[in-house]
Design a protein that fits this description.
The protein is an all-alpha fold. Helix content is 35%, strand content 0%. The longest helix is centred in the C-terminal third of the chain and has 14 residues. 0% of the residues are buried.
Length: 66
């Protein structure tokens, strides 16, 4: 990363280490669900988006001791 800590987000670091975050509907990625209603209540995409957005607005400079 060739940027200052103020311009590097925690999400940037996550992408470098883990790869892009994909928001999926089903955590087990089944094409056909055996249930009429999602047992997870469709919470997985919401939690994933919230996790991604949290890291998107946190910058590395916030975590460096001064």
């Amino acid at each position: 990363m060739n940027r200052s800590p103020e311009k590097i987000t925690i999400l940037d670091l996550y992408h470098c280490i883990e790869g892009e975050i994909n928001i999926i509907d089903c955590p087990v990625e089944r094409l056909i669900c055996p249930f009429n209603v999602c047992l997870m209540g469709n919470i997985i995409p919401k939690l994933t988006a919230e996790f991604r957005d949290f890291m998107k607005y946190k910058h590395l400079s916030n975590y460096i001791a001064k």
